[in-house]
Every structure is written in structure tokens, then in C-alpha cells.
Design goal:
Blueprint: H1 3-9, H2 24-32, H3 37-40, H4 45-56, E1 69-74, H5 86-99, E2 103-108, H6 125-138, E3 143-147, H7 153-164, E4 168-171, E5 179-181, E6 184-186, H8 190-200, H9 206-216, H10 228-239, H11 254-273, H12 277-280, H13 283-296, H14 301-311, H15 320-326, H16 343-348, H17 351-358, H18 375-379, E7 404-408, E8 411-417, E9 428-436, H19 439-445, E10 458-461, H20 482-485, E11 494-496, E12 508-510, E13 530-534, E14 539-543, H21 546-555, H22 566-574
Parallel strand pairs: 1-2, 1-3, 3-4, 9-10, 10-11, 11-12
Antiparallel strand pairs: 5-6, 7-8, 8-12, 9-13, 13-14
Helix pairs in contact: 5-11, 6-7, 7-14, 8-9, 10-13, 13-14, 13-15
């Protein structure tokens, strides 16, 4: 590297280094060109100042000689029990980084706790992605280990890392241990919703309900069903971003800690190899993730998150890739809510690596992973340990499709139905609409004994989408009205522009786009309008005449966008619709040129 090229690379210093003044460290930095060298090898006061800043924090920079500096982005928080095991994970990662000759620097980022964060953690997914991207941009980091576990934390971390495009590996904390009630293991979320319905109609007592709550709160970790956390962590394995076999290990597994330490070693090597997310988050790896999602009976939230993740690479996956892959890949994982088992049993059966082994004919095995190896090489030593929990393709839990994208005049930009968790007798259904204007309206009326509803009614929830709340909460699994539950009705067709938990179930049509608050057709639906669902034809049709539609459109009140301050205001102004992953308009690249990560000018602050 000649001096002119080097001085061009050394952007932002007041006094570019002179050839005759180059010392050993300067020559070393010219050879390695690590990003962090721009902070610490200045031939002026800034290099000294930057070393002093870390020395004050207890990092001995006197021994610094150009080692890679690795960030550890930790979403640990006492507000988020899912992620509270990440402190011990971080300590192992640090050991691995140090053993490999790197310098670990841990930093906190916002923790998106699905249970306590209101109105929804989804509102803050993009904020976490921004925080990751800007932290990696602004600080002297050469690579990063991302630590997450709870639902929206996982895609938020990855979205930010993709945009920053520094060498990165993502690790999780694992699912929680199952609780037990009356001798039965409890599935997080899934059993909660079932017992809630039992409480509403008097099948269990308030005391029993409280005991169930204590059993469900059984320590650190994410939901032990195939909810969004288990789905997304598993998809990161399939995508090549997370160590194979890690995501399903119990929170206190010694193997988890050993794998985390190895990841700390690997990230240092990745920096030296300059292996970045853009090198292995590709169309092929995203297809592999979608394939795994179908085979897992994965969360509908994964559709939005994978669409957003792909969007950060300027790759389109919705609806085409979900439709094509979904039409041929069945659910082969017998895990709640589609199946009967929990994550501990799925892990014992071989976890994600075993699932991928049974999916080999549907995967691109040449896809590269963070290890530098192909998926094919990594799967050579893997096998299925229990074929009743991780099924063969010819003996699925649910035949394809597991999940479908619906189209029609009610959802011009698509809607999503998790077929594997729905009721087959409702796959072809026509009925009158019962419309709830918002979530509060639904809660006020759903158990009214005078509610005009029967089993053929289609429940419609408006104004629960990205802009409407804001944040698109998991309100889509509208409760079955109490008067129908008492008659033994346990499922109905339900439609909304919101989401539902990956632990939920039922014939629930979600992510209707455009949403009500953005002027979508859903906003014009009225009580007793006839709606037709046809899963086989992938159709959701609103039976309304052209004349009536024109009349309602003309008489619709002018949409008044909510005027909010701070981040919620920014969210409403910039959020894209569900079919574009609910990312922010200004964060989604419009061309490959927009993928270039802008490095900061490094000089005096």
C-alpha cells in the first residue's frame, strides 16, 4: 500500500502521517488496515486521547499493538426475563475473544421484552436496529457479537448489523424450562391462551389460574414453544448467522457456554478474513430460512422480520418466495402450537441441524455461513435423533402449505394465514363481518351476551396495524366470544391488520395490507358485509358492489395521521407496511449503492 493510498484511507486526521515519521505501529496498521486503527494510530493527539478513554474504563491500552477490537452488543435487562441469561453468555464470549488475541468491549443496547413492553416490542424493533447500526458506525469496532433472545430483539439486532456490515455473529440465550401444572408440562403462550379461555367460561377457578401463572414463570429464557423467539433464532441458524445447534439448547446448558466462547474466537478470525454479513446473508440463505420456517410451523411474525432483513440487503422475498417455498414444504416439527411437543424435546431430537438434514433436498447447501464453510459441510456430522418429533418429509406433522399469503380486494398487498395452526373446516368459508373499530372496542364488546354473532360470523379488527396503534401489536387472535365458547365453539375466521404471537393458534388472517390507518380497504368494512376465505385459491374477497365501494370511499372521513412526539411520531411518519417488513422508509436501501456503510470522520470530537 503506497503512501498516497494510505493517506486517502486515513480520513479525518488533522495531520496525515509522513513517510519519514512512520513507526512500527503505523506500518502495522498500514498492512492490516483494521477499522479501529483509525482511532488509535493517529500521529497527533487524538490517538493518545482515544487510548486514554479506554484506559480510564479499565482497558489496558499500553499493551495495545493493533489487535482487532470486538464489540459485544448485549440486550440483557432486568425488564426482560427472556434475556437475563445473556450476562453469562457475554462472559464466555469475552474469554473467547481474548484467547484469540482480540479486545472485547461490551456495550448495552435496548432490550425488547415482549411481555412488559407496551403497546408492543415491535414498535421498537427498528429503534434497536438503528442503535446497533449507529453504535457500530460511531465507535472503533472491527466486528461484533450480537446477544439477543426475546422475539423482536433477534431481528432488530440482525437488521442493524446487516446495515453496518461489519463482521458479525449472533448468539441467543435459549428457551426456558417447561413449567408443570397438574402433571402436565406447560407451553409458554400456547397453554396460557387455552387456560385463559377456560377461565372465561368457568372451567377453571381463579386460584387455579394463579397457579398456572406461577408455573409459566419458571425462570430465564424465551418461550418454550415454536413462538417468534424460537422461530427467529432457528432461522438464524439456517441463514448461517448463528452457530448450528445453539438456538434450542437450554439456557443453563454447558454446551451453550462452550459454543459462545468458540464464537468469541471465531469473530476475531472473521475480522482478519473480512467476512461480513453481506457475504453470507444472500438470496440463497434467505430462501433456506424461509424453508426452515415452513418446516418448523414457524411464527407468522417471521414473515415480517425476514422481509425486513432481506430488505436491508435490497432483496425481495415477499410474497413470491413465501408463496413458492410454502407450496412445497410441509411442517415436519412436532412442536406447539402446530404440534404437541416443547422446545426441550425438539432439542433432544436434534434441533435445527436435524431439521435441516431432513430438508436437504429443499435447501441450497452451497450457501456460505459465518464459519466460512458451506451449509453442506456443516451438516455432514448432524443427524435426526427422534423421527417422531422431527419427521421425514414423507411423514409430516402437517402437509404443505404451512403458511400462505392471501390476496384479494380486502388485502391488495397481501395478508398472511398460518394454515398449520388453523382449522381445516374453515379453509373455505363465507360469512358476515362483525367489525371492531379498534382494540378497545373489541375488549368492550367481545363478551357481551347480546353481541350479534354466531359461528359463521367473521370477526374483523380495524386500526391495529403499524401506523394505527402505532407498532402493530399482537392483537390479531381475537378471543372467541364468550357466548360461543359456552356452546363449544373454539375457532372462527378472524381478520385484522395486526399480528399475533407465534405461540397463538386459530384461523386468524393477519398483516392485512394496506392497513386501516393507511386507508386500506379494511377500513371500509362494515357489519354484515360478506367476506369469503378460500385457502386453496389463496383468496380473501370482500363481497361489495362497485357502487357501494365508491359511496363508502367518498364518505370516508379524511384520515388524520396521529400527531405524536418523539420516537412514536417518527415511527408513524416513516414505517412501511407489513408487505415491506414494517421497516423505516429511510433505512431500507433503494439500490445496491445504498448498501455502502458510511464510515465516520475520525478526528477531534
Amino acid at each position: 500500500m503506497d503512501l498516497a493510498a494510505y493517506e486517502k484511507w486515513w480520513v479525518g486526521y488533522d495531520y496525515p502521517p509522513k513517510k519519514q515519521g512512520a513507526d512500527r505501529l503505523l506500518i502495522l496498521s498500514m498492512e492490516k488496515k483494521l477499522r479501529s486503527h483509525r482511532w488509535f494510530y493517529g500521529i497527533n493527539e487524538t490517538g493518545l486521547q482515544h487510548k486514554g478513554a479506554l484506559r480510564s474504563a479499565g482497558i489496558n491500552m499500553d499493551k495495545y499493538s493493533g489487535q482487532p477490537i470486538i464489540g459485544i452488543a448485549n440486550t440483557w435487562s432486568e425488564l426482560n426475563s427472556c434475556n437475563m441469561s445473556l450476562r453469562s453468555v457475554s462472559e464466555e464470549v469475552k474469554k473467547g475473544i481474548l484467547e484469540a488475541g482480540g479486545i472485547p468491549l461490551e456495550f448495552p443496547v435496548i432490550s425488547l421484552g415482549e411481555e412488559l413492553m407496551k403497546p408492543t416490542a415491535m414498535l421498537y424493533r427498528n429503534l434497536l436496529a438503528m442503535e446497533i447500526e449507529e453504535t457500530l458506525r460511531a465507535y472503533p469496532l472491527d466486528g461484533v457479537i450480537l446477544l439477543g433472545n426475546c422475539d423482536k430483539t433477534i431481528p432488530g439486532l440482525l437488521m442493524g448489523a446487516i446495515s453496518a456490515n461489519l463482521p458479525a455473529i449472533q448468539l441467543n440465550g435459549g428457551p426456558k424450562k417447561p413449567g408443570v401444572f397438574n402433571g402436565k408440562k406447560l407451553g409458554s403462550g400456547t397453554d396460557l391462551w387455552k387456560y385463559w379461555d377456560d377461565l372465561r367460561i368457568g372451567k377453571i377457578s381463579q386460584d387455579e389460574w394463579e397457579e398456572i401463572g406461577k408455573s409459566l414463570s419458571c425462570g430465564f429464557g424465551s418461550c418454550n414453544t415454536m413462538g417468534t423467539a424460537s422461530t427467529m433464532n432457528g432461522l438464524l441458524e439456517a441463514m448461517g448467522m448463528m452457530p448450528l445447534g445453539l438456538s434450542t439448547l437450554p439456557v443453563d446448558s454447558p454446551e451453550r457456554l462452550a459454543i459462545s466462547k468458540d464464537a468469541g474466537k471465531r469473530i476475531v478470525t472473521m475480522v482478519k478474513e473480512d467476512l461480513k454479513p453481506s457475504d453470507f446473508i444472500t438470496s440463497s440463505s434467505l430462501d433456506n430460512a424461509i424453508t426452515a420456517c415452513m418446516a418448523l410451523g414457524g411464527s407468522t411474525n417471521a414473515v415480517i422480520h425476514l422481509t425486513a432483513i432481506a430488505g436491508r440487503r435490497n432483496i425481495s422475498v415477499y410474497p413470491e418466495r413465501f408463496e413458492e417455498i410454502g407450496s412445497r414444504v410441509p411442517c415436519i416439527a412436532d412442536v406447539q402450537p402446530t404440534g404437541k411437543k416443547l422446545m426441550d424435546e425438539f432439542n433432544d431430537a436434534g434441533g435445527i441441524p436435524a431439521l435441516l438434514c431432513n430438508l436437504k433436498d429443499h435447501l441450497d447447501l452451497t450457501a456460505k455461513t459465518y464459519t466460512g464453510e458451506t451449509l453442506k459441510n456443516l451438516l455432514k456430522s448432524q443427524k435426526v435423533k427422534n423421527q417422531t418429533i422431527i419427521r421425514a418429509m414423507v411423514d409430516p406433522v402437517i402437509k404443505a402449505p404451512t403458511l400462505v399469503v392471501l390476496h384479494g380486494n380486502l388485502a391488495p398487498d397481501g395478508a398472511v394465514l398460518k394454515v398449520s395452526a388453523a382449522s381445516p373446516h374453515l379453509f373455505s368459508h363465507t360469512g358476515p363481518a362483525l367489525v371492531f373499530k379498534n382494540y378497545a372496542d373489541m375488549l368492550d364488546r367481545i363478551d357481551d351476551p347480546l353481541l350479534d354473532v354466531d359461528e359463521d360470523t367473521i370477526l374483523v379488527l380495524q386500526n391495529a396495524g403499524p401506523k394505527g396503534v402505532p407498532g402493530m401489536p399482537e392483537w390479531g387472535m381475537i378471543p372467541i366470544p364468550k357466548k360461543l365458547q359456552e356452546k363449544g365453539i373454539c375457532d372462527m375466521v378472524r381478520i385484522s391488520d395486526s399480528r399475533m404471537s407465534g405461540t397463538s393458534f386459530g384461523t386468524v388472517i393477519l398483516h392485512v395490507a394496506p392497513e386501516s390507518a393507511a386507508g386500506g380497504p379494511l377500513s371500509l368494512v362494515q357489519d354484515n358485509d360478506i367476506i369469503e376465505l378460500n385457502v386453496q385459491e389463496r383468496k380473501i374477497e370482500w363481497k361489495i358492489s362497485a357502487e357501494e365501494l365508491e359511496k363508502r370511499t367518498k364518505n370516508r372521513p379524511v384520515l388524520q395521521e396521529k400527531i405524536l412526539r418523539g420516537y412514536p411520531g417518527l415511527y408513524i411518519r416513516e414505517v412501511l407496511q407489513a408487505n415491506q417488513g414494517c421497516d423505516f422508509r429511510f433505512l431500507k436501501p433503494e439500490s445496491d449503492e445504498d448498501l455502502i456503510f458510511i464510515q465516520p470522520v475520525v478526528g477531534r470530537s
